[in-house]
Structures are given as C-alpha cells and as structure tokens.
Amino acid sequence: MRTRKWQRQGNSGIAFTELGLGTGPLGNLYTAIDEDEAQSILDVAWRSGIRYFDTAPMYGLGLAETRINRFLRNKNRDDYVLGGKVGRLLRRTPAAQRDGIGFWMEVPNRKVIYDYTYDGVMRSVEDSFERMGVDRFDILMVHDLDVFTHGSKEAFEQMAKIFFKEGGYRAMVKLRDEGVTTAIGSGQNDVECSQAIAERGDFDVFLVPGRYTLLEQSALDNFLPFCEERGIGVVIGGPYNSGILATGPVEGAYYNYSKAPPEILNRVRNIQTHCERHGVRLIEAAFHFPLMHRQIVSVIPGGGNVEQMKQNVQVANATVPEALWHDLKSAGLLHEKAPIN
What we know:
Elements: E1 3-6, E2 14-17, E3 21-22, H1 35-47, E4 52-54, H2 63-72, E5 81-86, E6 88-92, E7 110-114, H3 118-132, E8 137-143, H4 147-150, H5 153-165, H6 168-177, E9 181-187, H7 191-198, E10 205-209, H8 223-230, E11 233-237, H9 244-247, E12 254-255, E13 258-259, H10 262-277, H11 282-288, E14 296-300, H12 306-316, H13 322-330
Parallel strand pairs: 3-4, 4-5, 5-8, 8-9, 9-10, 10-11, 11-14
Antiparallel strand pairs: 1-2, 6-7, 12-13
C-alpha cells in the first residue's frame, strides 16, 4: 500500500497510507453489522496494508471505538496511524431517548453532549482511550464544528467561540505538546467552516468530507491554497459523495446524505461517460482524483462489509490514465485549478 509522509514543525511526521479506513460503518451506520463482520472488515484492511484508521465517539455512539479496541489490541502501536476526535461526550440515556435513531443501528443507548471546552476535550480524550484501549493518538481533531451540524452560522460561531475562548483549542495544543497526539486538526462538513477554524489557530491536519471530490472541488477556491501556505495536510473523507460516485447515477443514488437531485445525476452521468471512454470505472477515478493534490495525505472511504473493503483496496491499486483528467477538464467537469498530474 502506497504511503504519504506528512511533516510539520520539525516533528517526526506521520506516514499515512493513501487508502485509509473511515470507521463510521463499523458503528452500524444505516445498517447493523455483527461483530464477526466488523472484525473481518478490519482484518481485510490490515492484510491489504492499510495502516491509517479514522474514528470518533459519534460513530455508533462509541461502538466503532470499542470494535477497534478488539482488533488493535495485539498490534504494535507504532505500526498504525490512529485518528480520533473531540467535541462530543456520550452519556447513558433511556433507549427511547438515545441519539441517532434511524441513523445508527443497534448501538449503545447514549445521548450526545456537545462540549468544546477545555474540560470537555480532556474528558473526551480519556473516554476514547478507555473505549479503545490505547494511550495516544496520531491525529486528534475537533469534530463537526460547522453549520451543517449546529444548524446555522450563528450557532457555529457560538460553538467556535466556546472552542477558542473556553479552552478546547488550548487543551488540544497541550495534548500535542505533551505527545498525547502528534498532530491536531479539525474535521467538518463544509470548507468555509474549515477555513474559519484553520485561520484561528495552529493546526496540522484537516479532514474534509465530500468537498474535494471528482464531483465537486469548492475546496480549491480558498481552503486548499490556505493549507498549502500553512503546511496543513488534508484527509479526504466521503470521496464518493455519499455513494453516487461509487454506484453511478442510478435511480435512488445518494449525494450528500440525500437522494441525488437531477442536476447532480446529470453531471455524474457526464463524468461516467468520459471514464468509460478511457476504460476506467467511475469509482476508480473518484478515489484517485483527490490524491493528485499535494496537500492530500489520505483518502478514507468507509467499508460497510467485507466486499466493500476489498473493493476499496482494488480501487486504490487501479491505474488511471492522465488523458482522462485532461478530457474531464476540457469538458468543464473539473475545476480549472484542479491538479491533474
């Protein structure tokens, strides 16, 4: 498995595998998978050379973290890269009142409390350590500090104010200084909020879900150039835009967590046509496109079952001809500033 080295501020850096594993599906996202299937997914990832695992308390309300515990327990801690997140604390609650009903299936009865304060960050890290059985992260990110999660620009600004004024950011810097994590960063659902956070602190690695993909490249307008200036590494989550770049423009295809509208279906159909002319599967082009940008350190699609995990590995090992990227750009289907070699 190919790797990419990120290094900043004179530290030892982090070696990311270009294909990482996002563990949202291990938290029973939309559908429940049993314990044996979850461990088999992780086993396929490991045997295929994947060494970067991204997780969060939100994923299955702690379930993904506990499943990682079982798998990584007997692995040498220096042999893999582990990304975790802060911003949500989990508290026991009656079953009828748990968060994520209809989203997370067959998970612990927990209620999410957003806490971006100093104490909240420290508690979140300790809780994750207990669920995962580890004692350090490689990357620690503040999670979902954005408009998408909190509902409005005003609510986002209020949460960001708490994070920076009430010690959440200071806690993350302290954890980095003490070696509890090598890098700190943020992961949220829109690049405008990503940039707003990045500009207010000294960060190392950001996770950008779905905003720099074969389908949309809004991150090229401001955020990715800013990351280049600061030396910030970028992990791309959701490279298939919730599924449509994996399934193609089929009826009922998902885009951005919802059914794809007609204009998105048409755009994907056009992209797919160009891919087919070059003998490339749409999903292969979707995986490899972000990796042409030098700030991208890893792409982390989820794997909801063993077959999907195997497909991710096959896609990562595919070769995409440069001519395809030139054709897509000539057709106006890629941002004019998108790197294509």
